[in-house]
Design a protein that fits this description.
42% of the residues lie in helices and 16% in strands. The protein is of the alpha/beta class. The protein is built from twelve helices and twelve strands.
């Protein structure tokens, strides 16, 4: 397959690009390189004959049309998005533009491209839209996990913008017949995650002996999914997913924020012991953010029973692998810290 992947220089997108190339696909990476994108994520494939990069903003209709026309992909995997909840609270405009308008522009370009295809090329084309479990809102501790039929109830500007983009994709499928598949995933973690998200923040704060700020009492619960497992799930859905369907992708790994932070601190104690000092002594509880969802949980029964996918990385194995990667790859994160790209966001979890 030749796959056009939007947001392929981001955390999840780059994992998909690397895995797709490893599995023999051709990849066209479309990314406008906003603050969280990093071409260093793709250093291992940047010279591969099956890889192409196009610096294009998905809100630029003419540029998107030109990329589709030039590269003639067999599928589109749409991962480009503004995704950090705190940033969406501080400045929602960018989220409305990229996540809603950008998805609309991409859908229209894909529809025109697909309509012009002939025969088998048109028959096999798919548009895979990658979304989040946050569109479902939040759960109480005893509520059943989100299913594909759970009603949408987004809480933040970020999740509202992703919910809107999901609705657009379904509308283009029903109204125009565009062959789409959707996925909604739980919280990802792993190598190359931009250091404004919870797990890399904890690791880097602990590494530097700085306060580890945790919102509220740290009781908010998330389901954690190792990024390579997510990439595998997305390629599985692209290959075998039924058109018009949604598949929830989860790690079956629910943890409260404070439990996760203490787990990571314990791993730091094991790998970088400092006498009687324990890294959890750096934890500092801070004022909770507005509209902070209590709990997310994914029921991934559908993708397991229909497509045969399940996570391959165990909970503790994934956190250990991630910690090792950050400890061993200062070349990647040190320049980002030096640039000061995070403002005051390298902290609040």
């Amino acid at each position: 397959m030749k796959i056009l992947i939007t947001g392929g220089a981001g955390f999840i997108g780059s994992a998909v690009v690397r895995m797709a190339i490893e599995r023999g696909h051709e990849v066209v990476n479309v990314d406008c390189l906003t603050y969280a994108a990093n071409l260093q994520n793709l250093r291992s494939v940047e010279t591969h004959k099956a890889y192409r990069f196009e610096k294009v903003n998905i809100c630029d209709a003419e540029a998107v049309k030109a990329v589709l026309h030039t590269h003639q992909p067999d599928a589109v995997m749409h991962l480009a998005a503004e995704s950090h909840v705190d940033r969406s609270i501080d400045g929602p405009g960018a989220f409305m533009q990229t996540n809603i308008i950008g998805t609309y522009v991409l859908l229209e370009a894909a529809r025109a491209y697909w309509s012009g295809l002939k025969g088998k090329k048109q028959d096999v084309f798919k548009f895979l839209h990658v979304s989040t479990d946050e569109v479902y809102g939040d759960l109480s501790p005893d509520d059943p996990a989100f299913e594909e039929t759970t009603s949408y109830d987004p809480s933040s500007p970020y999740s509202a913008s992703k919910a809107a983009s999901d609705h657009l994709v379904r509308a283009w499928s029903r109204t125009y017949g565009l062959p789409v598949v959707l996925t909604n995933c739980s919280n990802n973690y792993g190598p190359f995650q931009f250091p404004e998200k919870l797990i890399p923040v904890v690791i880097l704060k602990a590494l530097h002996g700085q306060d580890i700020p945790v919102y509220g009492a740290g009781e908010n619960i998330r389901d954690w999914l190792y990024v390579d497992d997510h990439a595998d799930a997305l390629l599985t859905v692209l290959d075998k997913g039924r058109l018009g369907e949604t598949y929830n992708i989860g790690g079956n790994n629910e943890r409260s924020n404070i439990e996760l932070v203490r787990t990571l601190c314990g791993l730091m104690d094991s790998h970088m012991p400092k006498g009687a000092f324990t890294h959890d002594s750096l934890i500092k509880f801070v004022v909770d953010r507005p509209g902070h969802d209590r709990r997310y949980a994914i029921n991934a029964t559908k993708i397991r029973t229909e497509l045969g996918w399940k996570p391959s990385v165990t909970h503790d194995q994934g956190f250990e692998k991630t910690l090792h990667w950050y400890l061993e790859n200062q070349w990647w994160w040190a320049p980002l810290l030096k640039k000061g790209q995070f403002g005051d966001r390298l902290g609040a979890l």
